Amino acid sequence: MADDKKNVGRPDRNLISFRQKYEFSYAVRQLQNQVADTTRSEAATALTQAAKKVSPSEGREKVMRAARKILKG
What pLDDT does 52 receive? Predict the structure, then answer.
């Protein structure tokens, strides 16, 4: 079945899907690069905590900002 061309909406490029492993891993790697001396498990935990505080539907940058704040403080 083909895609419905009339059903157009906002692209989800600016969201993080926590159900898809590759998207979550990519976000974790980004956090590790942005905050020095951060382990993978610390970044994953901070990202999960940030998603609980800030709704993931509010956007990738807002979640990443909250995760950076958790890691730094």
Answer: 93
Residue 47 maps to a domain:
yes
pTM of the model: 0.79
Give pLDDT, residue 46.
Answer: 96
**Residue 44 forms part of a structural domain:** yes
How many domains are there within the chain?
Answer: 1
The boundaries of the domain holding residue 44 are 21-72
pLDDT over threshold 70, residue 2: no
Q: What is the DSSP string of the chain?
A: ----TT-----STT---TTSHHHHHHHHHHHHHHSTT--HHHHHHHHHHHHHHS-GGG-HHHHHHHHHHHHH-
